[in-house]
Amino acid sequence: MVGSNQNKCSAGLAFAELDARSIRLLLFSTPWTEHSDAHFTEACGNCCRTDSSELAQGTYLSSGGPVGQGFGGATTAAPLDGISATYWNPASISDVQKQLGFGLGLVLPEMQTSSSAFGASGTSRAEPGVSAIPKISWVHREEGSRTTYAVGIHGVAGYRTNYAASTTNPLFTPQPNTVGTPGGFGSVHTEAQFLQLAPMISYAITENLSIGGGPTITLGDVTVDPFVFAAPDDADGTLQPRYPGGTGSRMHWGGGAQFGLYYVSDNHIHLGFSLKSTQRMEDFRYNSADELGLPRTVRTKMELPMILSWGAAYSGIEDLMIAVDLRYLDFENTDFWGGSGFNPDGSLIGLGMESVVSVSTGVQYDVSDDLTVRCGYMFTENPFPPAATMIAAAAPLFYQHQVSFGLTRKLSDSASVHMAYTYYPTNAMTGPIVTAAGAIPGSSVSTRAFVHMLNIGATIKY
After folding, report:
1. Hey, where are the domains in the chain?
2. Sign of the C-alpha dihedral, residues 73, 77, 78, 84?
3. Span 2-461 CATH architecture
4. Is the peptide bond before 226 cis (omega within 30 degrees of 0)?
5. pTM score, two decimals?
């Protein structure tokens, strides 16, 4: 049966009557030229379309911990607990009691991708599994002091997908090793995890206004296999280069800074602002191999984007807190995420993401002295242009809406437990298969995804 499927796929993609230019458009059998990027951009602009909503805040998580998650991430001016305060606004820790906070997020994306070209078509389902996201915070202020100290340890960004090679789905057919033979990426495994350590300090200039900031230390672990950010090599001399693997790496270091303002008026209006600088990372380096299995080192530049956040909240109604956040994420000017098309050597320049604005809202209500419930919603602009559908198939969190619910149960005067659930509704993208020479005429890639996220945690006040 496997042999039959392979023959069917080859027959669907290869035609004896194809002229030379059509053969060059076959997926990944393209000779790289200095004009490749221009062809890529022009072809994608003319041929792509998008069916529905696409990637949301990129791979950057919209909130920290179960309390902030249940509140929709709208915590720039609403520091509901230590984790949410240290995640978005270092100045707001002035409004948080002394405490330790712990949280764990479990993310389960469901994805499938279909593609078609030259009469062949197939559908593949990814198996990314569950990803765990840790959150820890410590907030401390001496009695009567204007200075508050805190440390946040947050999983801030990431994604994972895992597609098997296919004999029928053109996008995931094996990379070709003969000139003129059609092929795709083969099996695709991508994964990114970014953990951030953020010590910070806040000073209450007046009873109403606080200022805060501190350094951010970031650790990143990224897998991209095949490694399309390096030039394909032709070490076996077949004149058909192939991309190397991108799994043999380590955690990489980086850093930046954050700054915030927090204001509370006498009539219970809260205002907040924060800036997270671009996180500059060392080059991501991989111990790979060429087509003959000989050592080859490949690398790419990767950063996390600058983020600006504005927030407003109101707590003037008894037992009720409402808030809204406006956020700007500068993906377009960030290495790896921004930039589009291919370099002359065939390596991918970047994911082609554009900078976006997102809006988060949250409502919290104290049902009783021991029970608090909350809900939230986030909408974000679409950072992926339609041309990036083929690339976005490797990112499992391409959502545009999120709906969250959460609660807190007070166990004692010093201990509380929290839980939140977030659902990212099904989204879909559709566009053409694209090579460095342009979009393959009549080809199509469609990818769909939805995400479940569960957050649990606890707070201990002292």
Report:
1. 2-461
2. positive
3. Beta Barrel (2.40)
4. yes
5. 0.84
